[in-house]
Design goal:
By secondary structure, this protein is α+β, with helices and mostly antiparallel strands. It is 28% helix and 21% strand.
Length: 303
């Protein structure tokens, strides 16, 4: 299947807001919109990006106080969901024929077999089998939130190593106009932990670099994996993140999945281009600087 298409700016405005909606809301992609994970014909580029990022685990694969019981519960849920959503790619065999009973997950896309019930780091093992990155947010007994685990191979210009172990407001503080949202961090963290039916939100930017990994310290001279063939370096393209939230209230935790999509401008129809043009035209200078976006170049290419 080709990648789904998501355009969260169709109202023509760049927003800094939570924008959380129920998982499964129709965005025009059929069954994909209701799935937690999205496997498509660009899988190999994402898998390559994850293999590359694994060379620098101190930048991309991090944890800070995530309880083993919580990690195991989230990993078992992920494995079960993958088998449910993509039986053609993920199957279970072995003891008990269930993941929780020691069954092995056969990942046909990578040729690997995993036993999430006994893996030392089951979340990291599963992360390599999917096109999504992830974070785990936890709440302590006093209701304080922090980022307890990150497996982020494809950050959009931010360094994961500076976010691990920090609370929601500190993680997002560099974002211009984030103050009203940060003021609600306790309510947002609780919403995430209790999102047992799944929730989704979107973020977007315009970049001129088709690489999936935009870590500030990445080697930009390398032939970086990208799912977008034929892109001319320096030309703007749309980068969208679909962010899925799944809560585990019994563990005081939430899984936050991040899936990145890249769209060339010439694949956008007239309505989408006009909405993007209006959104970029209305962005503040601070937001443009933060996202390293060249408004003149973007508007010129959207004409």
């Amino acid at each position: 299947m080709p990648p789904p298409r998501y355009f969260p700016f169709l109202h023509g405005v760049y927003d800094v807001k939570a924008g959380i909606e129920p998982l499964g809301r129709d965005h025009g992609n059929g069954a994909f919109d209701g799935r937690v994970f999205q496997v498509d014909n660009t899988f190999e580029a994402y898998h390559a990006a994850k293999r590359e990022a694994a060379r620098w685990p101190g930048r991309h694969i991090l944890r800070d106080g995530l309880p083993a019981e919580t990690e195991r519960a989230i990993a078992l849920w992920m494995a079960d969901r993958l088998v449910l959503e993509y039986p053609q790619h993920f199957s279970v065999a072995g003891p008990g024929t269930a993941v929780a009973d020691g069954g092995a997950v056969d990942c046909a896309l990578t040729g690997q077999k995993l036993r999430p019930s006994i893996e030392d780091a089951p979340l990291d093992a599963l992360a390599v089998q999917v096109q999504e990155d992830f974070a785990v947010l936890t709440l302590d007994e006093y209701g304080r939130n922090s980022v307890a685990s990150l497996h982020v191979s494809m950050p959009s210009g931010w360094p994961p190593e500076e976010k691990i172990g920090r609370p929601f407001d500190a993680v997002h503080r560099p974002v211009p106009h984030i103050e009203p949202l940060n003021a609600k961090q306790d309510a947002i963290a609780k919403l995430m932990v209790h999102a047992t039916r799944g929730a989704v939100r979107f973020a977007w930017t315009v970049t001129t670099d088709a690489a999936l990994n935009h870590h500030p310290l990445r080697d930009t001279s390398a032939n970086a994996p990208t799912p977008l063939a034929g892109h001319t370096p320096g030309e703007p393209l749309l980068r969208v993140e679909r962010q899925v939230i799944q809560g585990f209230p019994q563990h005081g935790a939430a899984l936050f999945l991040i899936r990145t999509y890249l769209y060339a401008f010439d694949t956008l129809d007239a309505g989408v281009r006009d909405a993007l043009r209006r959104a970029v035209a209305g962005m503040s200078d601070a937001s443009l600087r933060y996202k390293n976006m060249d408004r003149v170049l973007i508007l010129d290419r959207l004409r």
